[in-house]
Amino acid sequence: MADVSLGGAPQNVAGIQSSYMAQVQRRRLYGGLTLLILVVLMVSGFNVADDRNAGGFWEGLHQIGDYPADVVSEAWAKRADLPGLIAKYFPALVETINIAAVSTLIGALAGLILSLLSTRGLAKWPRLIPLFRRFSDIMRAVPEIVIALVLIFVLGGGPVPAMIAIAIHTAGALGKLFSEVAENADLKPVEGLASTGATWSQRMLLGVLPQVAPNYVSYALLRFEINIRASAILGFVGAGGLGYELRNAMAWGPGRFDEAAAIFILLFGTIVFFDQLSSHYRNRLTEGQAQ
User: Fold this and answer.
1) Can you list the residues of the chain whose pLDDT is less than 50?
2) Mean pLDDT of the chain
3) Pick the CATH number of 68-287 from 3.40.50.720, 1.10.760.10, 3.40.50.10700, 1.10.3720.10
4) Spatial distance between the Cα atoms of 153 and 237, rounded to a whole number of angstroms
5) d(CA 152, CA 246)
6) Quick one: residue 120, left, alpha or beta (phi over 0 = left, psi -120 to 50 = alpha)?
7) How many angstroms separate the Cα of 170 from the Cα of each of 108, 148, 208?
8) Contact 236/246 with Cβ under 8 angstroms?
C-alpha cells in the first residue's frame, strides 16, 4: 500500500502543476483580451470624439500652450497690479470657501443619517435598507453641475444653487463611505445598550459613533477638499464665487488676463493650503485611532 501511494505522488504533483499552469495561461489570455478590448474602446471613442469636435485634435495640438502663454505674459507685464487684484477677488474666494464648508457640513450630516439607515445590523428599518442605498446611489450618480443648472433655472444665479448641488452629491458620496465604515463597527456596545432599553438613536450615538468618528471626520475633511474645487467649477455656470469671476475674466480675453492670473493664484493657493491642512488633521486622526 505504501509503495502505491508513493508511486502515485509524482503523478499527483505533475497533475496539480499542469492544472496550475493551465489556469495561469487562461488567466493571461483573459487579461490580454480585456486589455485589447479596453484599447479598442479607447481608440474608437477618441476617434468618434475627434470626428464630432469642431476642430481636429491633432491639428490644434500645437496651439495648446498659446492661451497659458498669453495669460502669463500679460500677467508678468502687469505684475505690479497682481497684489491689488488678489485683494479685489479675495471676497469671492471667501464665498467659494463658504459654499464648500456649508455644503460639506450639510452633506456630511445627511450622509451620516443615510449610512446608519442603510447599514446591515444597525438600520432602524432593515427592510428599507435597499431603498436608502438606492437613494444614496442616485444622489451621488448625478453630477453637481447638472443639479446646479437645474437649481439655477429655478432659483436664479448665486451661491445657494451651488451649495445645494454640492450638498446633495456630498450626502450620496459620504453616505456610501460612512456605511462601509459602520459595517465594520463592533456590535457588542450596541447590543449592550439595547439590553438596557436604549432607543435606536441612543444606540447609534453612544455605541456606534464613538467607534467610527475618526474615519467619518477624515472622510469629511477629504470631501471638503473636493468641494472647494467643485464650488469653483460651478461658478462657471453662474453659481457665484471665484469660478464666476474667473469665467468673466477669461471671457473678456486679452486685456483682463492679469485678472485671470490673479484668480488662478488665489484658487491654486487655497486648494494647496486646505489640502495640506486637511491632510495634517487626517493623519493625526488616523495615527490617534491606530494608537
Assistant:
1) 1-4
2) 83
3) 1.10.3720.10
4) 11
5) 18
6) beta
7) 7, 13, 21
8) yes
Give the Cβ contact number of residue 60 at 10 Å.
Answer: 12
Q: Are 123 and 113 in contact (CB under 8 A)?
A: no
Residue 233 corresponds to which cell in the numbers above? 467649477
Calpha distance 87→97 (Å, rounded): 16
Residue type, 132: F
Q: Rounded to whole angstroms, what are the CA distances from 201 to 39, 108, 197, 198, 204?
A: 51, 17, 12, 8, 5
Residue 225 near residue 271 (C-beta atoms within 8 A): yes
Q: Which three cell numbers stand for residue 152?
A: 439655477
Domains of the chain by residue range: 11-52, 68-287
Q: What is the pLDDT of residues 1-23, one digit of tens each?
A: 444 455 555 567 777 777 878 88
C-alpha to C-alpha distance for 190 and 209, rounded to whole angstroms: 11
Query: Which residue in 72, 93, 97 sits closest to 261, CA to CA?
Result: 72
